[in-house]
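Project outcomes to date are best conveyed with an example. Our students and postdoctoral researchers have been running inverse folding experiments weekly, and each run begins with a structure described purely in C-alpha cells. The record below, which covers 136 residues, was selected by the lab manager from last quarter's runs and is presented without edits.
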C-alpha cells in the first residue's frame, strides 16, 4: 500500500525490491495490508498444519515418518509447482486429476464434500484478518 503522496519513483523502487523477494500484490488501502497478513503472512502456518495432518494420516496408513513426509511434501510441492506454472482455474486442475468414482474423488468427497474444509479455511483467514486489524 502506498499513500497518495508517495512519489511514483519510490513506488517503482519498492515494487522492484519486493519482486526480488517473491511475488508482489499491491493493495489500494491500508486495510489491504491486514488482508495480505491473513493470507500470506499467516499462510505458512496453515500450510504447515495441513502438511502435518497429511503426514500423520500417511503414517496411520502404514508409512514410516520419513516416507510419509517425503510423499506428502513431494506431492504438495509438485501440485503447487503445476498450479504456479499454469493459468488454469484451480477447480479445473483438481477436476483434471479426479477420475469419476475413483480414489481421488472418494478422498475429495471425504475432505470437502460437505464444504466443511472450505468453511474452516475461510474461518481461519477471517480470524487472522480480525486479529491483524486489532493489532494495527
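After processing, the design step wrote out the following sequence:
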Amino acid at each position: 500500500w502506498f499513500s497518495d503522496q508517495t512519489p511514483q519513483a519510490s513506488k517503482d523502487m519498492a515494487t522492484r525490491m519486493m519482486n526480488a523477494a517473491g511475488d508482489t500484490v499491491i493493495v489500494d488501502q491500508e486495510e489491504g495490508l491486514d488482508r495480505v497478513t491473513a493470507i500470506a503472512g499467516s499462510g505458512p502456518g496453515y500450510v504447515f498444519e495441513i502438511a502435518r495432518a497429511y503426514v500423520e494420516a500417511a503414517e496411520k496408513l502404514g508409512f514410516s515418518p520419513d516416507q510419509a513426509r517425503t510423499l506428502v511434501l513431494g506431492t504438495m510441492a509438485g501440485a503447487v509447482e503445476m498450479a504456479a506454472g499454469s493459468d488454469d482455474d484451480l477447480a479445473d486442475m483438481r477436476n483434471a486429476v479426479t477420475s469419476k468414482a475413483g480414489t481421488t474423488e472418494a478422498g475429495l468427497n471425504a475432505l470437502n464434500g460437505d464444504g466443511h474444509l472450505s468453511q474452516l479455511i475461510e474461518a481461519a483467514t477471517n480470524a487472522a484478518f480480525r486479529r491483524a486489524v486489532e493489532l494495527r
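The chain has a mean pLDDT of 94. Residues 79 and 93 are 10 Å apart (CA to CA). The training component of this project remains on track.
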